[in-house]
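Record 1 of the preview.
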Amino acid sequence: MWVLAGIGAVLAGLFLMLRELLPAFEAGRSGVIRSKGAAATRIDRVAEPERFEAMRRSRFRAARFGIGLAAAGMLWTILQIVGIALNQAG
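->
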């Protein structure tokens, strides 16, 4: 039962991580990034290079929570599987 909680944490972490990383990678390729929020503005690399890099860095920083959640979920799942195996062995 608790294994499913770990799997859910991994999936949630992957979702949160990719939600931030995919736009950051796309911005690196295209040279345009959109700000978050209801009135999203386009920030062009050529027109505003400092603001563009700051937005990309903030996207990468925001992805750290998802990476940590996925790693914690992976660790939790592995420990639960090892615990089940040890319980069954003896």
